[in-house]
């Protein structure tokens, strides 16, 4: 039984069947990539995991409890973090504060007010945040405002914000989209370090095959809303169905 | 039956004003994406165009009478408008119909005001958050209101309707009902017809001209229109000017119904934002429809029967806000708004 | 409690306390040292601090806070009439009632954000005003307003034997009592009502300081920065915004109660949405999102309201009397529409300028001047320009300046 079990998920938008009987089983502590040509339904599927969309039918279970209908903050509290395509951070706050906030959410829950403690007293949270920032290499600039960061650093900050919550599952939606080769490699190294150091399950949606084959333990190929192949990376590379999905069948005229 | 018809008619004049102002608001919000808290002030300025024009027209020559004495024993002052002196009866008629003539005066004035506002202030706020737009236009509204107050004083300045339009007509008799069942002031009917003409004109303009088509495209997707190489800036200025004219004209013709006073802008502002929200922000038909509906609703809410039904509470002032709150909570895009617009 | 503040916060608190307590001394030479004005300065300072928590810190622009001011006024006055002329139960009752009222309105309004939220608060404000004006007249006495009467029951007090209407007091000290102390040729007026308000102001300022420096305050800043992201981070932002809303509503109610304690009259006008506009102006002109900004803004506007509005034409003519007639006439004609009864024009213009050019208000202006001065003196000392990015120095940064997104690291 995988940590994330998707069974029979369907989603229709008007005339378009975006997700067609999708079945996925994501094993714990693995890096599971979901690939597929444009329009295959990858983002739609991800949106079903994080509470943005409700499938028409089917189940999405995380640790044997259903994710469907939960609000974003509830999904986060259940142990699922996500990283966006364009890094989203709290621009007006400092880097350190950006990481302290998820730390608070993790410790105190979705709503908690203690009007008698000042920020200066929360040393445990601060140290926790600083340690994570050290892991991603941002600890020296931790008092700078987040808006002053480069995109690559924002990506690191985002990862730090996720990691400090010790998530069980990390969803990455095209994490290297629009990146140059150097940045992409940095991201791969970062993700590799994290996946080796922490017990986190990764679900990565990616277009960049270099990233996919560097990281993934298992790959699911989505095409036209349906999982056509799911296997070990080495078996995916030459798979005829995958080639067909991406390139189409050869037509002899 | 006649009571219902009367209430519907009663709601039409206010509803027309709401519809026109809301139309202007939506034009600005839909095309430019700007929340304009100075919009009520435009309505107020339109009214004061009428006042100004009337003052100019009625500029009087003061002479002293040779025969009569005032109560204080000094020679009586005779005030004769120059218009009458120079043009005789025609002059007197002109003064009588000054409300209509002030339309001609108001159009260029409001257009100028609108263009200056847009070029001078609004266009710097396109990229800024809505809250800032609200704040700066709120400041502008205060300034405009206080300037008018300091020039014209704090008291309302009644503007009479032309003689021919004073009084009421028996609407009920016209459509076959009992005599004197439904009597309605003529000028309000005129206002309603005027509003209809203006609204129709705007819709026709948007629908049948190239300019209008570009504007509608801009309302749907501003970025793409810009990318198509169309100079959207000039058109935005023109749109703002047009919206200012429409709103100003609404004010011009409303003067016999509500005497112009310096804070009428603020009074109408809240109501008109509520109208826009109920109709659907960004929907022109919605704004117009909601304007009329809410005007009529307000009129019904002030009926004595309704008051009795609610234990003597008169809810005509609050009914609109109640409706707005309910709509904002249950159907945030309003009656006719596009789905997904501003549904946070 | 004081120990947990940073050193600079402690200094701020001390300085603020000293400044507020010395207001009669400071204001007297400025012609502003009379009880009524000083009371208003303190009371509107409280109002603005509360509003700032919702707008400056959390980023929600409400045009309805005058409604809470009004509710606070009416509740306090009823307490003064029914229970006791002592201001303590009146204030407590007003804060509780306005808190509940804010809970109700906030619960509904906060279901939307952005413009929709602002318009909802507008609608509620006008609704409350209309209700107070014409519908709930048994409670509010409509247009005439509510006042103290000779025959008020006041069950906790002894019967009123005198023929005069009672005056609100704090355990016997009447709000109107003033000790006039001559000092250096001026008359310093030490007024009970002002000091009551001032002590409450200091307390409320301290509370806002604690909120700013708490995890709760940091989360509110995150709401303002990126509310959706905050939800994805595991926080349910709705109860946080509601709490901020209720807190600011209670501040407003407190201000309303104090207004009534100083001058026992409550009218519906106080609840109009344009009255809400006043606190918006104060907060922004002082500096939204900062600690002292709102208080500065409140003081500034109340001061100008009293001073500028008294500068009518004859006063202005007096200024220019030394100049030749023609010149002085022109100057008087140019200047006088902006002062005296037309001073709101100046206020509106200054407000617009602030929103356009100096969105961080007075506080940003002051810090920019300080930066300029320090840079100039550093350049002179070092002989070469230094670019420094000391970590603690990114307070009011000027990227993307606008009152609704000003950095909330404060001074």
Report on the structure:
The complex is a heterotrimer of chains A (253), B (344) and C (411). Chain A has 253 residues and is of the alpha/beta class. Chain A has helices at residues 42-50, 72-77, 95-108, 123-136, 151-163, 181-197, 209-215, 233-236, 240-247; strands at 4-13, 16-26, 31-35, 57-62, 65-66, 80-83, 169-173, 201-205, 218-223, 226-231. In chain A, strand 4 and strand 5 (65-66) form a beta hairpin. The mean pLDDT of chain A is 84. With 344 residues, chain B is mostly helical. In chain B, strand 1 and strand 2 form a beta hairpin. In chain B, helix 8 (210-220) packs across helix 10 (232-254). With 411 residues, chain C is mainly alpha-helical. Chain C has one domain (2-292). In chain C, a hairpin with a 2-residue loop joins strand 4 (178-183) and strand 5 (186-191). Chain C is globular and about 70 Å long. Chains in contact: A-C, B-C. The B-C interface holds B 35, 121, 124, 128-132, 134-136, 138-143, 146-147, 149-150, 266, 270, 273-274, 277, 281, 313-315, 317-318, 321-322, 324-325, 328-329, 332, 342, 344 and C 59, 61, 108, 111-116, 118-120, 122-124, 126-127, 130-131, 133-135, 273-274, 277, 280-281, 284, 337, 341-342, 344-345, 347-349, 351-352, 355-356, 359, 402-405.
Give the distance, in angstroms, between the N- and C-terminal Cα atoms of chain C. Answer: 20 Å
Give the class of chain A from helix and strand content and strand pairing.
alpha/beta
Segments of chain A where pLDDT lies below 50 for 5+ residues?
none
The level 1 CATH classification of the largest domain in chain A is Alpha Beta
CATH superfamily grouping of the largest domain in chain A: P-loop containing nucleotide triphosphate hydrolases
Instruction: Enumerate the spans of chain C where pLDDT stays under 50 for 5 or more consecutive residues.
Output: 1-5, 384-401, 406-411
List the domain count of chain C as a whole number. Answer: 1
Radius of gyration of CA atoms of chain C, rounded to a whole number: 23 Å
Work out the strand percent of chain C: under 5%
H/E topology pattern of chain C: HHHHHHHEEEEEHHHEHHHHHH
Instruction: Please give the most extensive interface between any two protein chains, plus how many residues each contributes.
Output: B-C, 41 and 45 residues
């Amino acid at each position: 039984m995988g940590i994330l079990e998707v069974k029979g998920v369907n989603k229709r938008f008007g005339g378009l069947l975006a997700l067609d009987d999708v079945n996925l089983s994501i094993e714990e502590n693995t890096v599971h990539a979901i690939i597929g040509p444009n329009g295959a339904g990858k983002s739609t599927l991800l949106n079903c995991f994080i509470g943005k969309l409700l499938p028409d039918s089917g189940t999405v279970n995380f640790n044997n409890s259903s994710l469907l209908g939960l609000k974003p903050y509830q999904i986060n509290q259940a142990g699922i973090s996500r990283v966006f395509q364009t890094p989203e951070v709290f621009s007006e706050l400092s880097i350190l504060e950006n990481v302290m906030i998820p730390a608070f959410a993790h410790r105190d829950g979705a709503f908690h007010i203690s009007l008698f403690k000042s920020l200066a007293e929360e040393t445990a949270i601060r140290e926790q945040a600083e340690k994570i920032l050290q892991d991603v290499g941002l600890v020296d600039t931790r008092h700078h405002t987040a808006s002053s960061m480069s995109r690559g650093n924002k990506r690191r900050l985002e990862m730090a914000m996720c990691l400090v919550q010790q998530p069980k599952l990390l969803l990455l939606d095209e994490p290297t989209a629009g990146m140059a080769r150097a940045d992409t490699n940095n991201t791969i190294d970062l993700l590799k370090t994290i996946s080796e150091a922490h017990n986190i399950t990764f679900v990565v949606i990616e277009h960049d095959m270099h990233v996919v084959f560097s990281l993934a333990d298992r790959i699911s190929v989505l095409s036209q809303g349906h999982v056509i192949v799911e296997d070990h990376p080495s078996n995916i590379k030459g798979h005829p169905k995958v080639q067909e999905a991406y390139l189409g069948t050869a037509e002899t005229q | 039956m006649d009571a219902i018809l009367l209430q519907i008619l009663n709601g039409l004049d206010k509803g027309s004003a709401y519809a026109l102002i809301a139309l202007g608001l939506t034009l600005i919000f839909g095309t430019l994406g700007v929340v304009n808290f100075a919009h009520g002030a435009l309505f107020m300025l339109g009214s004061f165009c009428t006042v100004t024009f009337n003052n100019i027209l009625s500029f009087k020559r003061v002479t002293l009478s040779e025969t009569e004495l005032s109560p204080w024993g000094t020679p009586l002052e005779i005030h004769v408008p120059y218009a009458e002196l120079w043009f005789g009866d025609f002059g007197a008629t002109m003064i009588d119909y000054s409300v209509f003539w002030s339309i001609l005066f108001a159009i260029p004035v409001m257009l100028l005001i609108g263009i200056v506002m847009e070029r001078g202030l609004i266009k710097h706020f396109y990229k800024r958050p809505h809250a800032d737009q609200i704040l700066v236009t709120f400041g502008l509204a205060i300034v405009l209101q206080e300037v008018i107050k300091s020039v014209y004083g704090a008291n309302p300045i009644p503007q009479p309707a032309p003689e021919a339009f004073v009084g009421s007509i028996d609407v009920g008799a016209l459509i076959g009902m009992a005599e004197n069942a439904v009597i309605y002031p003529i000028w309000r009917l005129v206002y309603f017809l005027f509003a209809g003409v203006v609204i129709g004109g705007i819709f026709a303009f948007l629908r049948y001209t190239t300019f209008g088509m570009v504007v509608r495209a801009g309302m749907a997707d501003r970025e793409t229109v810009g990318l198509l190489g169309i100079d959207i800036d000039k058109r935005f200025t023109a749109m703002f000017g047009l919206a200012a004219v429409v709103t100003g004209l609404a004010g011009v013709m409303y003067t016999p119904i509500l005497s112009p006073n310096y804070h009428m802008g603020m009074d109408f502002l809240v109501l008109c934002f509520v109208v826009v929200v109920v109709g659907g922000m960004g929907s022109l038909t919605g704004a117009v429809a909601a304007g009329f509906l809410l005007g009529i609703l307000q009129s019904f809410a002030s009926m004595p029967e309704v008051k009795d039904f609610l234990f003597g509470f008169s809810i005509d002032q609050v009914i609109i806000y109640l409706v707005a709150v309910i709509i904002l909570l249950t159907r945030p895009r309003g009656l006719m708004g596009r789905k997904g617009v501003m549904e946070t | 409690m004081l120990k947990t503040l940073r050193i600079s916060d402690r200094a701020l608190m001390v300085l603020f306390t000293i400044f507020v307590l010395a207001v009669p001394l400071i204001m007297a030479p400025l012609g502003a040292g009379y009880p009524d004005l000083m009371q208003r300065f303190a009371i509107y300072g409280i109002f603005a601090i509360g509003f700032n928590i919702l707008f400056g810190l959390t980023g929600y622009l409400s045009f309805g806070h005058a409604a809470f001011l009004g509710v606070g006024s009416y509740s306090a006055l009823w307490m003064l009439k029914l229970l006791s002329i002592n201001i303590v139960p009146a204030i407590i009752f007003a804060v509780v009632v306005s808190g509940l009222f804010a809970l109700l309105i906030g619960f509904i309004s906060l279901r939307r954000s952005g413009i929709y939220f602002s318009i909802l608060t507008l609608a509620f404000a006008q609704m409350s005003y209309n209700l107070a004006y014409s519908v709930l007249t048994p409670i509010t006495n409509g247009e005439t307003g509510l006042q103290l009467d000779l025959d008020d029951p006041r069950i906790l007090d002894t019967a009123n034997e005198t023929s005069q209407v009672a005056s609100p007091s704090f355990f016997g000290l009447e709000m109107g009592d003033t000790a006039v102390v001559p000092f250096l040729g001026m008359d310093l007026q030490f007024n009970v009502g002002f000091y009551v308000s001032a002590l409450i102001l200091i307390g409320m300022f301290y509370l806002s300081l604690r909120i700013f420096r708490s995890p709760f305050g940091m989360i509110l800043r995150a709401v303002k920065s990126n509310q959706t992201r905050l939800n994805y981070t595991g926080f349910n932002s709705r109860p946080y915004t509601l709490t901020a809303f209720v807190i600011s509503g209670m501040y407003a109610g407190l201000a309303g109660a104090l207004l009534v304690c100083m001058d026992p009259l409550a009218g519906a006008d106080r609840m109009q949405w344009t009255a809400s506009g006043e606190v918006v102006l104060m907060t922004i002109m002082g500096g939204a999102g900062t600690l002292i900004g709102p208080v500065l803004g409140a003081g500034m506007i109340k001061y100008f309201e009293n001073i500028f509005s008294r500068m009518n034409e004859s006063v202005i003519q007096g200024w220019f009397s030394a100049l030749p007639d023609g010149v002085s006439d022109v100057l008087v004609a140019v200047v006088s529409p902006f002062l005296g009864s037309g001073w709101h024009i100046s206020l509106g213009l200054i407000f617009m300028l602030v929103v356009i050019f100096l969105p961080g208000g007075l506080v940003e202006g002051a810090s920019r001047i300080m930066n300029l001065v320090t840079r100039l003196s550093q350049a002179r000392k070092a002989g070469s320009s230094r670019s420094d990015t000391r970590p603690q120095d990114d307070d009011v940064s000027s990227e993307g300046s606008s009152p609704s997104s000003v950095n909330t690291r404060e001074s």
